[in-house]
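Practice problem 4.
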């Protein structure tokens, strides 16, 4: 689903009320009946019929016919509009530019505020097929009647926001988080190249040591990145310093598979440097020794602080189940 912000400024307040009502109805209905949209939106029945028709033409909602009743489902396009409107009303974001990245779980765009300062908008895109598998496997959503891809995407954005905020506050080399709404995350724009695009560096050994030191610093603060590779490391254009991105898969050092995630992060860097830069070192961090040395570390546990910020173990468990199905 490609973001199309062309019509955003032309969506009326009543149309946004219908979009919001469809989103709220989705909490307990995979297909939201028109009667419920009328009830939640507080608009007249005839008016709602006209509005849903207009929104469906723009692919912001889709009409679904099933055996019990006809209704509507919010599309990713509609969800995008709701998130962007929330950011716009907070004056975080004013305009949308070009797409600069795409992944299996997200889309990345350049956006700007009213002053014209560029930022990066990340839209989490998690697919429905995976969540059907999750629903069959185990019900982690309590009283919710269906596993919702919108809910999962929002959880991924909330988790990334929580970790990025804590990491930035403690001077880790991560982008500055600016705002978060639903499945979207807004962060500072950094003039940098992805490590995967770089064919040579002035000192591979120095960069290798810096990246391994960051892994150790994460762990001594109670965290493991979980996907620490050339796709999620940026190199600043001017200074050559690394910036770490992409945190939805981050786990605590107390996680049952923490050592496996830690070793995978380390091995990803070792393998990449050997393949790309012909650089190999016998020095690399070990999980047990890193934890044993934690007493000499920073003295705070960022995993505990993230949980205290509101993103708890229940939400973590939901996203881990997503990962176990999609990997």
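Answer key:
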């Amino acid at each position: 689903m490609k973001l199309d912000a062309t019509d955003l400024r032309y969506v009326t307040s009543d149309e946004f009320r219908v979009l919001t009502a469809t989103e709220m109805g989705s909490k307990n209905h995979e297909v939201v009946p028109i009667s419920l949209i009328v009830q939640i939106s507080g608009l007249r029945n005839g008016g709602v019929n006209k509005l849903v028709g207009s929104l469906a033409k723009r692919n912001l909602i889709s009409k679904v016919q099933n055996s019990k009743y006809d209704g509507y489902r919010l599309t990713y396009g509609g969800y995008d509009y709701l998130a962007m409107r929330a950011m716009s009303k907070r004056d975080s974001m004013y305009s949308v530019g070009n797409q600069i990245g795409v992944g299996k779980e997200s889309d990345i765009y350049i956006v700007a505020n009213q002053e014209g300062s560029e930022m990066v908008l990340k839209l989490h895109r998690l697919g429905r097929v995976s969540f059907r598998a999750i629903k069959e496997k185990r019900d982690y959503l309590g009283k919710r009647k269906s596993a919702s891809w919108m809910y999962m995407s929002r959880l991924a954005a909330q988790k990334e926001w929580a970790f990025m905020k804590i990491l930035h506050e403690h001077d880790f080399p991560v982008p500055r988080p600016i705002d978060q709404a639903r499945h979207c995350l807004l962060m500072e724009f950094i003039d940098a190249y992805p490590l995967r695009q770089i064919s040579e560096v002035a000192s591979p050994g120095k960069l290798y040591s810096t990246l391994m030191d960051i892994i150790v610093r994460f762990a001594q603060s109670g965290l493991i990145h979980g996907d620490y590779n050339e796709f999620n490391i940026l190199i600043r254009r001017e200074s050559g310093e690394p910036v770490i991105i992409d945190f939805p898969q981050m786990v605590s050092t107390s996680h049952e598979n923490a050592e496996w995630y830690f070793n995978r992060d380390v091995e990803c860097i070792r393998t990449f440097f050997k393949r790309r830069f012909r650089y190999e070192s016998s020095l690399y961090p070990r999980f047990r020794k890193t934890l044993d040395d934690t007493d000499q570390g920073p003295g705070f546990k960022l995993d505990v602080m993230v949980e205290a910020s509101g993103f708890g173990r229940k939400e973590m468990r939901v996203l881990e189940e997503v990962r176990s199905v999609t990997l």
